[in-house]
Design the sequence.
């Protein structure tokens, strides 16, 4: 496996691509297969807690929640839900760095980057606004 | 089924990481320009050559030798993919996974690429051409990672 955290944008893009091609009913078995396809494609099953939370925060109903959780459970949360003080300090440091375009930083992006740095992982993302 | 993967990836802090993985473990690698004090782990792009087959070598030096022996075929395949990419591909379907046609007997080969920005996706053809151009020297420069 590659030492790269899959960001929310990667998970969402894959989910939407697969759902767009899907003709039948989307079931738990189907979304688990989608997750395994992504893991094979990216050669990584690593996510971090903020990615898990961002995915869950996007669900629109009970069934969507069930499917999203089934999808996410195929991945490995490398921080195991334990985010130490040093990650929060690093998150604050990243959040207070104003980029050239002055765009506001997102809590999730800064935290993902802080966790990835501590655990010596790269981050795979399609989010061009990801905190610098 | 044994797996050998050659990878080259660029981070947003301009660090470039090149290496060979055998069955999921880093067998050889080289880092260029990673500033660990100001590390930005976001991957701007990556290119991977993934090889799978029953008779692939399982040791680092043997894998290096095998990749060098396949060098001509691999370089030609990468150049061919780079030409296809120059025409442009739907960025929404990235990461790209391209099966290498006419791979050596008993081996399945594919090339995987990812780019963070649409602009980088357009430039990935140049990255692939560069991998092809410097195939031999980069493989030769790789070293066995230090163990903690």
Sequence:
């Amino acid at each position: 496996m590659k030492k790269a955290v899959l960001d929310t944008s990667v998970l969402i893009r894959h989910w939407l691509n697969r759902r767009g091609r899907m003709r039948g009913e989307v079931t738990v078995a189907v979304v688990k297969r989608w997750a395994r396809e992504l893991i094979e494609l990216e050669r990584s099953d690593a996510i971090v807690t903020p990615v898990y939370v961002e995915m869950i925060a996007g669900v629109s109903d009970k069934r969507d929640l069930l499917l999203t959780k089934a999808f996410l459970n195929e991945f490995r949360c490398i921080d195991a839900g334990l985010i130490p003080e040093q990650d929060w300090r690093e998150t604050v440091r990243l959040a207070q760095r104003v980029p050239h375009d002055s765009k506001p930083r997102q809590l999730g992006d800064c935290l993902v980057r802080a966790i990835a740095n501590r655990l010596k992982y790269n981050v795979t993302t399609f989010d061009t606004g990801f905190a610098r | 089924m044994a797996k050998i993967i050659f990878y080259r990836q660029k981070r947003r802090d301009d660090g470039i990481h090149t290496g060979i993985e055998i069955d999921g473990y880093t067998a050889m690698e080289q880092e260029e320009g990673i500033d660990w004090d100001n590390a930005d782990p976001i991957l701007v792009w990556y290119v991977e050559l993934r090889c799978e087959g029953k008779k692939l070598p399982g040791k680092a030096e043997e894998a290096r030798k095998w990749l060098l022996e396949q060098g001509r075929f691999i370089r030609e395949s990468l150049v061919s993919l780079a030409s296809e990419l120059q025409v442009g591909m739907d960025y929404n379907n990235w990461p790209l996974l391209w099966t290498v046609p006419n791979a050596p007997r008993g081996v399945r080969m594919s090339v995987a690429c990812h780019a963070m920005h649409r602009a980088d996706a357009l430039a990935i053809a140049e990255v692939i051409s560069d991998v092809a151009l410097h195939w031999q020297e980069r493989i030769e420069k790789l070293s066995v990672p230090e163990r903690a």
In short: Residues 28 and 67 of chain A are 6 Å apart (CA to CA).
